[in-house]
Amino acid sequence: MNVLGKTLGFSLGMILIFTLVANLLPQVEGEAPVEQKVDLGALTMESYIALGEALFSGKGTCTLCHNAMGRAPDLLVMNVGGAAEKHLEDERYKGKATNIEEYLHESMVDPGAFVVASFGKKGSNDTESPMPAVNKAPIELSEIEINAIIAFLQFKDGNDVTVELPTEAPPVEAAPAAGSAPAPAATAEDAIKKYGCQACHSMLGTESSVGPALDGIGSRQSAEQISLSITDPAAAIAEGFTPGVMPADFAEKMTVKELKMIIDLLLEQR
Ligand code: HEC
Ligand code: HEC
Question: pLDDT for 181-224, tens place per residue?
């Protein structure tokens, strides 16, 4: 399993996502795809793992923090199951999990149950986690989606996949269209969601302390300043915050219209 997992894991990802999407697409033309439930016979562990991989960098917004920048443990390069086993034994561990699967689940819905040393909220001495609970707004992953990510995290390191296939199919909207760029957002709120701003910023009714609160930004900054903060975060670093945490590639990813909608919405936050 170890060798197989390592060599196959990522290269298979795209094919599997494609298979998944093909399997999950509604078979009846003209139906609204979002609420469509599918035949569970079509869902294999391979496609469930592929869904987890897609959610990890997509809807889950995990890669906004879990990357090589050092803000959070780089889950994609480390052996996640190994770390989980170690942390379960740690004297600082105060959660309820008894195995790797439960630990990973708990890490996602109750991130404070164990805070990885040196990654805690500033000034909390590693007693509070900056990670948002991913089953709550704004990320709001379902149980099925959370378990798909656990399956992916177990599989990618060649560890045993202990997660069971769901008895209910995940909604089609959970999987991105294979091979195509994500559709441009229709509204400012959609754009904020698409780019995961709320994972790091308190705004629009959700909280996060990774970046400055944007609730009152409209009374502090001009459209030009806000635009620069989004397209070139390194240009001016908000006082008390770490450079290099906010993704620097929004300028490449956003359409001009998406950027404009986001700026207009932020200007209204007073
Ligand atoms: C806003 C930043 C942020 C986002 C978004 C985020 N995390 Fe985290 N995560 C962290 C930080 C920081 C830590 C380390 C502190 C801690 O242990 O809580 C962490 C810890 C973890 C751990 C525990 C690792 C260990 O070795 O014990 C897991 C598992 C995890 N995250 C999974 C996820 C998954 C899956 C997602 C997406 C669904 C996600 N995280 C989204 C910041 C984030
Ligand atoms: C992974 C975390 C993260 C994500 C995702 C993120 N930001 Fe940030 N953002 C930060 C941090 C940290 C800072 C403060 C450091 C700096 O100025 O670069 C910041 C700074 C800002 C500022 C300047 C605020 C001030 O008070 O000067 C704006 C505006 C902003 N972000 C908007 C956005 C928008 C809009 C999005 C989504 C398109 C977004 N951010 C996504 C972490 C993030």
Answer: 678 899 999 999 999 999 999 999 999 988 999 999 999 999 99
Query: In whole angstroms, what is the distance from residue 176 CA to residue 39 CA?
Result: 19
State which of 62, 76, 202 you would mutate to test the pocket of ligand 1, scoring each by most atoms of that ligand within 8 A of its C-beta: 62
3-state secondary structure of 206: strand
Round to whole Å and give the CA distance between 191 and 258: 6
pLDDT confidence tier of residue 171, bands split at 50, 70 and 90? low
Pick the residue whose CA is nearest to atom 29 on ligand 2: 226
Ligand nearest to the CA of 131: 1
Give the long-range contacts of residues 18-24, CB within 8 A, separation 24 or more. Answer: 18/178, 18/179, 19/46, 19/47, 19/50, 20/47, 20/50, 20/51, 20/54, 20/175, 21/175, 21/176, 21/177, 21/178, 22/178, 23/47, 24/169, 24/170, 24/172, 24/175
Q: Report, in this order, helix, strand and coil percent for the chain, each rounded to 5.
A: 45, 0, 55
Which amino acid belongs to residue 264? D
The single-letter code of the amino acid at 129 is: S
240 band by pLDDT with thresholds 50, 70 and 90: confident
200 C-alpha vs ligand 2 centroid, how far in Å?
A: 7
User: What is the rounded CA–CA span in Å between residue 207 and residue 176?
Assistant: 26
Which domains are present in the chain?
A: 2-174 (no CATH), 188-267 (1.10.760.10)
Buried b (16+ CB within 10 A) or exposed e, 8-42: ebeebbeebbbbbbebbeeeeeeeeeeebebeeee
Q: What's this model's pTM, rounded to 2 decimal places?
A: 0.75
